[in-house]
Amino acid sequence: VQLQASGGGSVQAGGSLTLSCTTSGGTFERGTFSTYAMAWFRQAPGKEREFVASITWSGSRKTDYADSVKGRFTISRVNAKNTVYLQMDSLEPEDTGIYFCAARYAADTDYNYWGQGTLVTVSS
């Protein structure tokens, strides 16, 4: 299975974008989409990839955010659509980068699947 991220683009500071990540090309080796924690990471030019947000795989759908995006970004998922979203509001130039979605099976510690990334550019 592959993860496909979309929704990136160019916006001015203060604007909003919604990223989507969905599966394609088959099924997971273990479990189903609903049994994977999902996350978004980003990589700015010249910087290392960093965590942005995550949502747990079932039940409470607990979310976690990087301090830099708390209060501005919202992660959500629709298991019936095998899709995870990242609503990004009040965007800042520092949010510019390639955004990647990732999937981690149940209690695994590492992310098992990564999407190809979608570019977000925020101009001042």
Question: What structural keywords apply?
Answer:
124 residues, mainly beta, 7-stranded mixed β-sheet, 4-stranded antiparallel β-sheet
In a nutshell, what does this entry contain?
The protein is mostly beta strands and 124 residues long. The protein has strands at 2-6, 9-12, 17-24, 36-43, 50-55, 63-65, 73-78, 83-88, 97-105, 113-114, 118-123.
Task: Please outline the helices and strands.
Layout: E1 2-6, E2 9-12, E3 17-24, E4 36-43, E5 50-55, E6 63-65, E7 73-78, E8 83-88, E9 97-105, E10 113-114, E11 118-123
Q: Which spans have pLDDT < 50 for at least 5 consecutive residues?
A: none
Radius of gyration: 14 Å
Query: Could you give the count of β-strands?
Result: 11
Order of helix and strand elements from N to C terminus = EEEEEEEEEEE
Count of alpha and pi helical runs: 0
The largest β sheet comes out as: 7 strands, mixed
Oligomer: single chain
What fraction strand? over 45%
**Gap from first CA to last CA:** 37 Å
Arithmetic mean of pLDDT: 95
Report the principal-axis shape: globular
Written overview of the protein:
With 124 residues, this protein is mostly beta strands. Helices cover 0% and strands 51% of the residues. The protein contains no helices and eleven strands. The strands form two sheets. Strands 2, 4, 5, 6, 9, 10 and 11 form a seven-stranded mixed beta sheet that branches. A four-stranded antiparallel beta sheet has the order 1-3-8-7, with no helix packed on it. Strand 9 and strand 10 form a beta hairpin. The N and C termini lie far apart (37 Å). The mean pLDDT is 95.
